[in-house]
């Protein structure tokens, strides 16, 4: 039995009239589990018009009332946490524990949106000149839009619309067509939380829907997470249309392992950070640079990774699930083959892995390469699969040079017992998010997600204070009042008569 995925337009859930049918498949066996009628141009434009109309009243709602909607929403998200994780796991293939983490990280951002009143506070200076005061307000932009990827269908939409709406904007969400059921449930719960009609819209589809959002004059800001090529297209098209754009793109995250690090800690952390979630996360550690004698740990690392077995979402023994699609699997297998052909040493090959009874699924087993160089394709490209590339360097300085030469700058980590080495690394590295003895340094929502270089196009990053600045405009007022113009009546206290009954 297949589910009909619905749009949420102008306060109504509808199947849509689009003639293009998009299948949603279970990655474990590639059987269809849901169908989408891709949004028509008219349906997207209707959503935009509804959001624009709703903005006129929503922006006037007191900030405390907007916060109360977020309080109710985060409560509902927690109440339905496992339900959301189950939907997410079934359509992405993620293990249940991984899916629960996806949902929870989104809930944390919704919790942060509950604090919107203090996040929107402006600045004031009295007497900037004689009798003149200056103060500023943060005001919403209007209709904003989010275009989100398949790999985190709960967390990444929740990076976007709760904060944007809490700031006083209205929002249109266009999630990945590969796993749309989780975003639909997020929207259903938002409606249940008491959000007024038109404040949030949901449209499903492909590039047709995206292009309407990018080109429509009533869309003021676009948030995007996805691949490099699409991020560049989103950023260029959006900014050409004079919109604010934050576009999070690809990554190639490096981990530097110093010989003074705790070996077992390094191995334990690298196993999950490299092949966990099937490597389908933009903060995965896909390159490990072993400095000096640390290279002797590579065989033990390979043995530890070899113990990780992919499996079904409800298999408690599974280390991770399948890749999202046959195309994703084919791409990863092609890159593994290129790695072998270009001279890397394949210590562990997951190309032939399968799960009994689910041979048609998008399975790739954990894979480890050593002797990788910066000229190889498996180093240059984001594999987005359960593949770890091991490199070696003689010194920390050499390792830093390798990392800084990469065109990407999403995340990096160093494992060391030396405070001096850690200080040098965090200071000199040209990457936006740095972990010290932490494998995946994704910050909590009161900070911002701060990728650099080719991993991000834009100015203000996701969630935290930067997101509030992205979703608002600053208005500065300079005021002067003349005491000589105060009337005599204003100097006199009103005659107050109290009648007792």
Automatic annotation (TrEMBL):
Domain of life: Bacteria
SUPFAM superfamilies the record matches: ALDH-like
Stretches assigned to the Aldehyde dehydrogenase domain: 14-477
InterPro entries per the UniProt record, alphabetical: Ald_DH/histidinol_DH (IPR016161), Ald_DH_C (IPR016163), Ald_DH_CS_CYS (IPR016160), Ald_DH_N (IPR016162), Aldehyde_DH_dom (IPR015590), MeMal-semiAld_DH (IPR010061)
EC number of this enzyme: 1.2.1.27
Gene3D superfamilies referenced in this protein's UniProt entry, alphabetically: Aldehyde Dehydrogenase, Chain A, domain 1 (3.40.605.10), Aldehyde Dehydrogenase, Chain A, domain 2 (3.40.309.10)
Keywords assigned: NAD, Oxidoreductase
CDD domains: ALDH_F6_MMSDH
Protein family according to the UniProt entry: Belongs to the aldehyde dehydrogenase family.
NCBIfam families referenced in this protein's UniProt entry, alphabetically: MMSDH (TIGR01722)
Protein name: methylmalonate-semialdehyde dehydrogenase (CoA acylating)
Organism name: Shewanella violacea (strain JCM 10179 / CIP 106290 / LMG 19151 / DSS12)
